[in-house]
Specification:
294 residues; 6 helices; 16 strands; disordered N terminus
């Protein structure tokens, strides 16, 4: 049942891999509406583009470094993350807006030392990332058939024109597994850049409780929701820049509540052949407090 909330996260991953960027809602215009067939075709092309992009990300063909700020009811944290062919490597920089204490910084450096000394730790993380990507891809591939999409208007953004669609479960969709089964309870809205044919934003919510294993394995509660935005962060590379999640449920006999806001900033490209040891050197060049060393 780890797969239950992982499925939700990989709805993220998936929607992550499939969603878009910084939509400051503006007044909608009223162009000629797309027919249901045209709407479905545009959504399918955009999702095909996202699927291809997700596969490329999975092979780390365009690695980047970026900063992740995550806020939850319990605490907030800021990390610098470097993508490599060996998987991601992270360094914790701040907790609740404050630089790490000397003791906290020492522990973080010791963690990086252990990572250098024991490559199997990084191999395990890479395997976990690959597993998450595989689950996300599984969901991403069924999105065209899992939902019915309806054109809902066009908006003009500072990045250009985007087209909005609502989506709801397709009653004829037969989910092949638990991850894709989550989709049968979701509905929401999706925005697409019609020129680049990229998904630019998605907001979805659970319309009913979703049980797993006849309720024995667990349940996700009605009302849970996700919002994901992605954008071109340079060099025609689209990445998630903002994500919000609130999901409540149960895994076996334990209550699980997930609530967070994640912002991804300061993207910078890196060499495609970068390895995790080189990533650690980059992370260690950051001064205490999270400022780049000169």
């Amino acid at each position: 049942m780890a797969a239950t909330l992982t499925a939700v996260r990989n709805l993220l991953s998936l929607f992550c891999l499939v969603v878009c960027g910084g939509l400051a809602a503006s007044a909608q215009t009223a162009p000629a509406a797309l027919t249901p067939e045209q709407a479905q075709a545009l959504v399918e092309r955009a999702l095909a583009t996202e699927s291809q992009a997700a596969q490329e990300l999975g092979h780390a063909s365009h690695p980047m470094r970026y900063r992740l700020h995550k806020t939850s009811p319990r605490l907030s944290s800021t990390k610098e993350i470097v993508e490599t062919r060996d998987g991601d490597v992270a360094r914790l920089l701040r907790i609740d807006g404050q630089p790490l204490s000397p003791d906290g910084e020492q522990k973080e450096q010791a963690r990086l030392d252990a990572l250098l000394a024991n490559p199997s730790l990084q191999q395990h993380r890479k395997q976990s990332e690959d597993s998450d990507t595989a689950r996300a891809m599984k969901v991403l591939r069924v999105l065209p058939s899992a939902f019915l999409y309806q054109f809902a208007g066009t908006a003009t953004e500072n990045t250009g024109t985007v087209e909005k669609f609502t989506f709801k479960p397709n009653p004829h969709f037969d989910p092949p597994d638990m991850e894709t089964g989550v989709l049968t309870a979701m509905a929401g809205e999706i925005w697409i850049d019609p020129v680049q044919e990229r998904v630019v934003r998605l907001a979805g919510s659970l319309q009913q409780d979703k049980e797993f294993g006849l309720g024995i394995l667990g349940q996700l509660d009605k009302g849970g929701w996700i919002e994901i935005e992605q954008a071109d962060v340079g060099g025609h590379q689209w990445r998630i820049v903002h994500m919000k999640l609130k999901m409540n449920g149960r895994v076996l006999f334990k209550t699980k509540n997930s609530e967070s806001v994640q912002d991804y900033t300061e993207f910078a490209p890196l060499p495609a052949d970068l390895n995790y040891r080189q990533a650690i050197q980059i992370l260690r060049s950051i001064q205490a407090g999270g400022h780049a060393a000169n």
